[in-house]
Design a protein that fits this description.
Blueprint: H1 3-7, H2 13-35, H3 41-48, H4 52-55, H5 57-69, H6 73-80, H7 82-101, H8 106-134, H9 140-168, H10 173-176, H11 178-192, H12 207-226, H13 236-258, H14 272-301, H15 307-331, H16 337-354, H17 364-391, H18 398-438, H19 442-450, H20 455-492
Helix pairs in contact: 2-8, 2-9, 2-11, 5-8, 5-12, 5-18, 6-7, 6-18, 7-8, 7-11, 8-9, 8-18, 9-15, 9-17, 12-13, 14-15, 14-17, 14-18, 14-20, 15-17, 16-17, 16-20, 17-18, 18-20, 19-20
Family: Belongs to the major facilitator superfamily. EmrB family.
Subcellular location: Cell membrane
Main location: membrane
Length: about 500
């Protein structure tokens, strides 16, 4: 990478903010599409005449394609140039979004979602890498703060925006809404980003590594997405996919470490600061994301919240992050980054613990305020961790490191979703059995009977009450488990070496 690009001098200071906003907006659009379709699956299934299980492939296809392609970012950017990769990916993402929006069959929709996942996979790490080239060192912390907020806002706002568009317009608009954003990013990106283009390196293609990556990541993502609905390892298909993924992963590691021009540069893991920070980032992000998985579902299915209200409640976390991001950017140049990470993750764990006090009578603000307070601590976790991961690798490894960082966030999201929903469901069944074993319904039955309720309706009312309480108790147990994971991550960061310098994200050493 040229000195001009690495110093941010290639773009005039008056244009740096606009370029940074466009890059952050591109990342937000991709992250948003991970969750925007979740609440629309019943509408999509009904409109296309398919089952809900078939409709789930709208989510799975995107996640699988993205998970496979994210680690390839370093190789693709090196071969074609960072800015070319970003702009071409944005064009592809826009086209595939349009095709999703006009889809009339399940096959067309899934194929278009795969295209979205492929192109979106490169946009996440490239937007992050290019931000480091746009801004000079003294402004990079603030720029990455903006980028991190979009990373956190996507999962929070996705269900709310998706629910609003689906309920008031049509499910087609959850994809068509990407078009103006994509056009804006393409036009502004082409006008402003070309001065920081990186040199192209013509490298041989690691076909074996690429095939192994597709094999093990694809199988793993399908296991994580479908395993819960297939009773996990009670289904021979899930067992076969899990074994294939495990064997493929081992062979992939061995092959890539011995390849001169690997498709995924795993050698960046030799840096202890990068490896530890990446592990902490994965655990902390999974623990943070777990709340976005279960809370909106609990609010909608059991408390009667509309999709827009549930999404708004979750979005308070991102609002809190907007407030403290500038503070964190200021502190990063003055404090040990490990202190900020440990305090931030511990703060999120404490707010997760507060949510164990929720009950079935909790109102909107009782549920939303802890989300907001949790959001205040999120930049303390995300910004220093991203700095630690990218600051501990060589200059020519930044794109590969950013790709692996995005890959681990993607996998952490998938694992958190599967494990959290499975744990929540299993705990709910146990809690329901325990409640039924000690329940003495005679008094309640007599009271309802005196009000004129028929016996069938009385049994249904009592069953609903037990289900509601059991589900809420299971939610509390899920928060306890999540708190333990977060506290472990807060302690683990101290295995990373002390940063040689505080603050500023650099383009390498």
């Amino acid at each position: 990478m040229s000195e001009t690009a690495s110093s941010g001098a290639g773009i005039a200071p008056s244009r740096q903010l606009v370029a940074g906003l466009v890059l952050a907006l591109a990342n937000f659009m991709v992250i948003l599409d991970l969750s925007i379709a979740n609440v629309s699956i019943p509408h999509i299934a009904g409109n296309l005449g398919i089952t809900l299980e078939q409709g789930a492939w709208v989510i799975t296809s995107y996640a699988v394609a993205e998970a496979i392609c994210v680690p390839l970012t370093g190789w693709v950017a090196g071969r074609f140039g960072s800015v070319r990769t970003f702009l071409f990916s944005m064009v592809g993402f826009g086209i595939c979004s349009f095709l999703c929006g006009i889809s009339v069959t399940m096959g067309m929709l899934v194929a278009s979602r795969i295209g979205q996942g492929i192109f979106g996979a490169f946009l996440m790490p490239m937007s992050q890498t290019l931000l480091l080239s746009v801004f000079p060192p003294e402004k990079r912390n603030m720029a990455m703060g903006l980028w991190a907020v979009t990373l956190l806002m996507g999962p929070a706002l996705g269900p709310m925006i998706g629910g609003y568009l689906t309920e008031n317009y049509s499910w087609h608009w959850i994809f068509l809404i990407n078009l103006p954003v994509a056009i804006l990013c393409i036009v502004v990106g082409f006008a402003l980003l070309r001065p920081i283009e990186t040199e192209r390196q013509i490298l041989p293609i690691d076909y074996v590594g690429l095939a192994l990556l597709v094999l093990w990541v694809g199988c793993l993502q399908i296991v994580l997405d479908l395993g819960r609905n297939h009773d996990w390892f009670a289904d021979p298909m899930i067992v076969a996919l899990a074994i294939t993924s495990a064997v493929g992963f081992i062979v992939f590691i061995i092959w890539e470490l011995g390849e001169d021009h690997p498709i995924v540069d795993l050698r960046v893991l030799r840096h202890r600061g990068f490896s530890v920070s990446l592990t902490v980032l994965s655990l902390a992000f999974a623990g943070y994301f777990a709340g976005f998985v279960v809370v909106p579902q609990w609010q909608q299915a059991w408390l009667g919240f509309p999709a827009t209200a549930a999404g708004l409640s979750s979005s308070f976390s991102a609002m809190g992050g907007l407030i403290t991001a500038p503070v964190v950017a200021f502190l990063m140049s003055r404090l040990d980054l490990r202190v900020l990470v440990s305090c931030g993750v511990t703060w999120i764990a404490a707010m997760t613990l507060v949510r164990t006090t929720w009950t079935t009578d909790s109102d909107f603000w009782t549920l939303s305020i802890p989300q907001f307070v949790q959001g205040l601590g999120t930049p303390f976790m995300m910004l220093p961790l991203m700095t630690l991961t990218l600051n501990t690798v060589e200059e020519n490894e930044v794109a590969s490191a950013a790709g692996l960082q995005s890959f681990m966030r993607t996998i952490a999201t998938a694992v958190a979703t599967s494990i959290t929903l499975s744990y929540w469901g299993d705990t709910q069944r146990i809690a329901r059995s325990d409640a039924v074993a000690v329940l003495q319904p005679e008094a309640a039955q007599a009271s309802l009977s005196s009000l004129g309720f028929p016996s069938e309706q009385i049994r249904q009312v009592l069953s609903n009450m037990v289900e509601l309480e059991a589900t809420t108790l299971a939610l509390i147990h899920t928060f306890w488990a999540t708190t333990a994971v977060l506290l472990f991550a807060a302690a683990l960061i101290w295995l990373a070496p002390r940063p040689s310098k505080s603050g500023g994200i650099t383009m390498g050493h």
